[in-house]
Amino acid sequence: MSTVVGSLSTKDNVKFNPQVREEKLGTTIKDREEEKIIEEDEENKLKGEREIMDLGPLFSLKEQLEKDKDDESLRKWKEQLLGSVDLSAIGAESKEAEVKILSLTIQCPGRQDLVLPLPFTKTSKTSSCLFALKEGSRYRLLFSFVVAGNIVSGLKYTNTVWKTGVRVDYSKKMLGTFSPQKEPYVYEMEEETTPSGMFARGSYSARTKFVDDDGKCYLDVSYHFEIQKKWPTTPSTSS
Fold first, then answer.
1. Which of 10, 44, 55, 59 is most buried, taking the most CB atoms under 10 A from its CB?
2. Of 69, 67, 62, whose CA–CA distance to 93 is shortest?
3. With 70 as the cut, is the pLDDT of residue 163 above it?
4. CB contact set of 238 (below 8 Å; sequence gap of 6+)
């Protein structure tokens, strides 16, 4: 597998604040209006980026390699990006990139890795609780994905978390640009810590998306998870 850690990436975060007391529930409508404004701003920004990127026709990978082949700097950049990619094996005629998100892995020190195949299968488990984490525990997310057909530019990961209808966390991560290859990429996120305390424990809902610079969405999933006082006796799985 290819491992990609932190290259060409940026992250925008809204601080994870799960301590939503009962008196704050009265502001839920206002919070939702603010969330709608933020989502609209994100969509407008993405639309602007798409308009900037839409400068001409798309080219297949084979055409891109032939294009500007006399420009030494561009040729070296393309060779560096593609590495030892076997064009005959991956197919170089497609003008569209295809990205398949294979799995989400949650790693916690001293615990067995929790591997969740993507997309999640619609079951009673995904509508109730997909997994549970212990409060105050360190964890790291890893994503496994395959790129085929063409280069995917500016692949982004976004994740929004709600508790009792109020948004408590928003993260956006620029993963980078990836060339097609048969083996999966594995992208490792920074280590984080789950919140702790009485107000942190409970059920959360989340929505995860993977979108590229052209606004093409490769995964959009919603699910529920829990933060508990202790680790569950039997690790949660998606099966």
1. 59
2. 62
3. yes
4. 116, 117, 120, 121, 125, 126, 130, 131
